[in-house]
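Subject: sequence -> structure tokens, single chain

Hey, anyone have a minute? Need the predicted structure for the following. Not urgent.
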Amino acid sequence: MNITIRTASPADAGRLLTIYAPYISDTVITFEYDVPTEEQFRQRMAKVQQRYPWLVAEADGEIIGYAYASQFKDRAAYDWAVETSIYVEKGHRHAGVGRLLHDALEQALRRQGILNMNACLAYSEHEDEYLPTDSLHFHRSLGYEQVAHFHKCGRKCGRWYDMIWMEKLIGDHQNG
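Reply:
Had a minute. Here:
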């Protein structure tokens, strides 16, 4: 399988939403409850792309995953930090697609002068049918460290879930 990474375009919104929708309806990987419309999703993409990269992974011309960075906090002092998100189509997980997307996203963010990549993950001590532990292991393998743990702060699928923040420093934090 030949995988290429490219910048997302507005025309990709429908396909990207098709990848994202099962994460909403079948998992707690996102705490979002309702699948957005294609137009709402396209607007999200446009807002993100005003400032940050949104990338897609294609295999033989078909989009099989995407990654993007978004604003970490709405204050100028946080301009060097982002929140990252990666979603891979179910049939293509555990094949290196997420890693390719993450590496390309990290390089794009470095070029932008971003220093901190942050990831917010749903968490439970015990894997269940709504939340595998894949994301935690994936981020650890990329060099992220856990920096915060919030207990029972998200409720979805009739259960309470924790949230953890993980962080990867990708640049030199110089004073002055």
